[in-house]
Amino acid sequence: MQEQIITNTLSFSVLGLPVHLLDDYPGWLIAQLHQQVGGQVITLNAEMTMQAEKNATLAQIIKQADLVIPDGSGVVLYLWLKGKKVKRCPGIELAETLLLYAGQLSKPMPVFFFGGAPGVAAKAAEMWQERCPKLAIAGTQNGYLSAEEEKQLHQTLKEQQPSLIFVGLGVPRQELWIAKHRHLCPKAIWIGVGGSLDIWAGTKTRAPAWFRENHLEWLYRLYQEPWRWRRMLALPLFAWKALLSNFSRK
Fold it and tell me: Which residues form a coiled coil (predicted)?
């Protein structure tokens, strides 16, 4: 069944990496969940695309992912230059849609939160439990684990078999971790959510709507975390490569 669904999913290349073009990403994943077909979701943005150019393992994981969504404004603008009028699908909004859906079901669809500093994942789960009292929380775990704690996490996931697993370890660590461990819960949807756990926990805030609507969320993130400036250098490089690719096509 998974092979049939993936075949019907149109993809388009962004600097050699696939982006799946769908009208309804949450609906696609909800169908996967009901059919108990697991998979890895990649939330592609310009920074990750540039990292993949230097990290062959990350590039291969993206190419093999079950769903790659246009998370970043840069990716959306690249697709627009290529004539593909797509809307941005922020990973945090996709995750929240799935959580709200899971919280309305009469039959539990358990979720697991992994990542962040000690206490962050637990606080994020607590916030969602208050927002959706019927949401089934399979467990939480922070992202700073000893070898023994990592082993225990593997065992917990194998026993609990959550339906949705949100991993906030940052790029590319979360993508590599999911690819390595998704066999523990083969029927689950695994999504790397970056700093979403911190936003849900209240330790960080998301960019205001004006920044998001004007493709400036990266600027707000830089304001919050100035140490990211070196990583942000990937954005103009991505833009330059996008323009070169468009000119070469013409």
Answer: none
Other beta carbons within 10 angstroms of residue 130's beta carbon come to 9
Other Cβ atoms within 10 Å of 136 Cβ, number: 18
Could you count the other beta carbons within 10 Å of the beta carbon of residue 246?
Answer: 14
What pLDDT, in 10s, does the model give residues 23-39?
999 999 999 999 999 99
Q: How many angstroms separate the CA atoms of 218 and 227, rounded? A: 13
CB atoms within 10 A of CB 124: 26
| Distance of alpha carbon 88 from the chain centroid | 13
- Predicted model pTM: 0.89
Q: How far apart are CA 241 and CA 66, in angstroms?
A: 26
Strands (E), the chain: 10-14, 17-21, 39-44, 67-70, 111-115, 137-141, 164-168, 189-192
Among 111, 87, 108, which residue's Cα sits nearest to residue 191? 111
Phi, psi of 243, rounded to the nearest 5 degrees:
-65, -45
User: In whole angstroms, what is the distance from residue 245 CA to residue 250 CA?
Assistant: 9
Residue 155 has pLDDT above 90, yes or no: yes
Note if the bond before 172 is cis, omega within 30 degrees. yes
Polymer length of the chain: 250
- The neighbouring-strand residues paired with 113 are 140, 166
Beta bridge partners of residue 189, listed in sequence order: 39, 164
Task: Choose among 11, 33, 32: nearest CA to 22.
Answer: 11
Q: Taking 90 as the threshold, does the pLDDT of residue 134 lie above it?
A: yes
